[in-house]
Design brief:
two-stranded parallel sheet, four-stranded antiparallel beta sheet, 14% strand, 425 residues, alpha+beta, Outer membrane efflux proteins (OEP)
Amino acid sequence: MRSYFVAAALFFLAAFQVSAQNGPLRLSLDDAQQMAIERNRTLENASIDVKIAQANKWQAIASMLPQVNANGTYNDMFGYTMNFGGMAIALPSSASLGVTASVALSGAQVLNIAMSKISKQMSDITALQTEQTVASQVKTLYYSALVADQTLDLLRNNLKEVERLYDFSQQSVNVGASEQVSADQLMVQVASAKTAIRNAETSLEMLFNSLRLQLDLDPSVEIVLTDSLDNLLDVDAGLAMMNQQFNLDNNYNYQLLKKNVELARQQVALNKWALAPTVSLAYQYSAKHNFGEGMDMTPPNTMNIMLSVPIFSSFSTTKKIQSAKMSYQKQLNTLAETENSLQIQYRQLCYNLQNAHAKYVDQKQAVEVNKRVFDNIARKYEQGYSSALEMTNASTTLINSQSAYVQAVLEFVNAQIELDNLLNN
């Protein structure tokens, strides 16, 4: 009996897991952003670039450390005898072993390490920038889907109201209290509302498909957004960003440009070091064994110290230095231009956000007013004090107002995201 209950429990647990796997994927905004970051292939490539830069840095460091090589040889003269001054000397077979330890030092190696470190830092910044881009794209899609869903709710509510008025008008026509043309006008409005709903549903599905693509999900996965637009749309927090001080050093593009300037400066120094001497040191141990009688003239220990000094390169190195200096100056000019450009961009994005907020407030009030006008005309229409044309015009005005409000919400959200990315909060 006990085994029966255990088997039943396992069966229901398995059934629950299958049901959970086949159910919709419920995502908050934070969940969606985290999933996109974890599964995005572009971000994965950026992470690989960081590892490559780390390996290059250690490769540059290793070039300054001692290098040890070993070699072994075997020589067989096949019993050859050499005649040396009337004396026959047999050349026996032999085996030898050699171990060489060497190290070469120059200022260029030190600079290569510094440049590799800068490249590693640039890869880190690029990875963070890619992560920011992915999170922003997901945020934009998430908000857009919520807005599109809200648009559908508004359109469906309008359709219900227009259908109710159409039914009322048709009943009036049936009893002879109204003309058919009045009902026909409302029927056209019903058809237009249904078309608008279908278009909105198509747009919403496109947004969900884009979100699936960002999250690397199967097209058949159903997504349910658990955050509501009212909870996410923090108007006060968005406006507060305009009062923040813009710190250029927080911006990823500016950070990358500064690293490019550092690389250009190090490149100038690297080309200058081509005029400096290079010191190399090598120690070699050799051991030889003859398989028979023979002379061994190989010294067991040798050491070599070499100083290499460049004397004349037909002005090639000088021209490289001049070219590197000009590239460095170009990077400085680009950095100065970008500083000014980012400051102007900050002012423009603040203005865009302020303008989008004003538009959002105006459109929100317009929706409330047009809704009251529509409800008032609908009541009058039912009482016979307004015409079907007035009813149709009021419905069209309300739909247009709601569409403008939805667009204003999107503009306000996008303005927030763009400013937030620039400030890198």
